Structures are given as structure tokens and as C-alpha cells.
Amino acid sequence: MDLSTSIAGVPFRLGLMNASGALCVTQAELEALGESAAGAIVTKSMTPLPREGNPLPRYVAIEGGSINSMGLPNLGYPAYVKLIPELKRFKKPVIASLAGLHPDDFLAGAKALNMAGPDLLEVNLSCPNIPGKPQIGYDFEETERLLSAIRDIVTVPFGVKLPPYFDPVHHQKIAEILQRVGVAFVTMINSVGNTLVVDPEREMVVIKPKGGFGGLGGRIIKPVALANVRALWKIWGDRIPIIGTGGVENGTDIFEHVLCGASAVQIGTVLVEEGPGVFARLEQELTECLEQKGYPSLMACRGKLREMD
Ligand code: SIN
Predict the structure, then answer these.
(1) Which of 104, 267, 284, 285 ranks highest by number of CB atoms within 10 Å?
(2) Is 127 among the residues known to form the active site?
(3) How many angstroms is it from 152 CA to the middle of ligand 1?
(4) Using CA atoms, how far apart are residues 163 and 56, in angstroms rounded to an integer?
């Protein structure tokens, strides 16, 4: 089965990879992704300085998914700038994920990462877990300003990781902005931010940061993710590739994302729960799903979701 895809001209053997954040902070974690069946290696979203992240507990698996408030723990971009050329030995695309606490962080990071030569640069404008810092993706003016400034700095194809939107007007607006900026791809969705899980027995929140508020991930958010992928596909068609993220646990979930219009899919919660061996399982399940459906390749079903007359 042909499970390949291409994002901004970069070929992928398999259109399936880790979401930034899931087991991709340290050199050992990134190398494990390189050795796994994953179609690409995506780094943790990086900031200029190393960060410990938020206090523990900051990730908890819940029924149907997970809640996290990691707070961008990462090694700092100088460390990843050194690591990226080494990760190329795995002969699969390396995607650098860039975050920041201030606009200048993004610009300095973009400059440094561009020199390191990742295959793609994913600008994360949607981390919900930094106390006092809003998700930039919900501020349309700032999103356009920042992405335009990054565009003027980098030569590596760059895209953006977005939060979920819940209104068609917002889908239309962000789509127009990203077209104007000229992003090479979009990854969506990040976790559903600022949700709250309650433990009724202990009458307590389940994670420590931000009074228990955190990003929801896993199966529970799949309908939100599919809706966002579909909404942008309906506006763009195949003009800007979409990497679908959210709620993938099995091969059929990947199929659903691609039916909605995704050109590739990322996984988060299920990777954290199962480890990098999950990619081989999902590759097998996706192959079986497509064979059963009679599709000759993954891209043959892209965007083919049927609507009712
Ligand atoms: C985190 O580190 O808090 C998660 C990253 C993200 O949601 O972008």
C-alpha cells in the first residue's frame, strides 16, 4: 500500500508522525522516533532558553484522552540547532517546531533554525499552557504580523500549528490570513486549551499548573479536529496541505482525517501512552483499512468525505 505523502514538496514515506510535544524533547526521544516506523521526526516546540516547564503533575491520561499543561519543557533552540543535522541520518523529514514567549523569540528562533536546515518549520501559535500568555492563534492581527515577519526571514518551507476554532467565520478569517502570508502547510489542531478535569473523589483538579486548567487531547477531541481539518480543506482544497492532529488512536482515525482533507496526520496522546512502537501498529491498521475500502493509496482518499444531498 502506498502510504506516502508530500508536504510543501517534501516527500514522506508514510504520512504519519508524532505531534510536537509527544516524546520529542530529548536527543534520545528524537532518535527513538528516527528508529521507529514514523514517517517524520517532529521536535518539541522550542524556546530560546531551555525550560523545565510547568510543575508536576502536568499530564494525566483520562477516559477517552488526556489533559496536559506541560509548559513547553524543551532544551532551548541552540541545542536543537545542533541536533537537527544529526537527525537527518534517519533519512526521513525532520520538522522543527518553534514556539516563543515573546514575538522576538520567534524571529530569533526562525533565523537560527533556518540555518540548521530542517525539512520543514512548524510555528506553534497555539500552546495554551503558559500562564499569562494567550494563544497567539486566537489573535488574528498578531498571527498575520508574526507569520509575515517569519516569512521574510526563512527559506525553509514553514507552516503554522493552530488551535481549534469553533465558528465558520473564524475558519474563513484564518484561512484568508494564511493564504496572504503564504504558509506552506498548516497543522491543526493543538490540544483544546483551558479545559478542566475534576476528580470527584478527591474533589480536586488532576493537574497542578494553572489551577488545573489544561489542553485536552486524545480520542475525545477527534470531532473537533476533524471539523477544523474539513473546514480549511473546503476553503483551500489541495492548495495548502493540512496536517491533521487530534484524536487518532487507530488506522481508521487516520483514514477519517485524510477523508476530511488532511495530507498527513500527527499523533500525541496515543504515542505518549504506547511509545514509538505505535507507528508500526498504525501503519498496519491503516494499510488494512485502505485495502478493505479499495483505495490504492492514502492520498487517493484525501478530501473524499461525502456530504448528504
Ligand atoms: C506544552 O508544552 O504545554 C504543550 C505544547 C503545546 O500545546 O503547544
Answers:
(1) 267
(2) yes
(3) 26
(4) 24
Q: Which atom of ligand 1 is nearest to the CA of 161?
A: 8
Q: What is the side-by-side order of every strand in the sheet holding 213-217? A: 59-62, 65-68, 213-217, 192-196
Question: How confident is the model over 102-151, as pLDDT tens digits?
Answer: 999 999 999 999 999 999 999 999 999 999 999 999 999 999 999 999 99
Q: Which one is catalytic: 24, 127, 260, 289?
A: 127
Cis peptide before 221 (omega within 30 of 0): no
* Atom from ligand 1 closest to the CA of residue 193: 7
Question: Pick from 190, 174, 181: which is nearest to 127 by CA?
Answer: 190
Tell me: the pLDDT tens digits for 161-186? 999 999 999 999 999 999 999 999 99
Pocket of ligand 1 (CB under 6 A): 21, 45, 69-72, 124, 126-129, 190-191, 215
Ligand 1 centroid from CA 306, angstroms: 33
Integer CA distances (angstroms), 286 to 4, 258, 277, in order: 12, 11, 15
Q: What domains are defined for the chain?
A: 5-53+71-191+219-301 (3.20.20.70)
Q: Which residues of 166-191 are buried (b: 16+ CB within 10 A; e: fewer)?
A: eeeebbeebbebbeebebbbbbbbbb
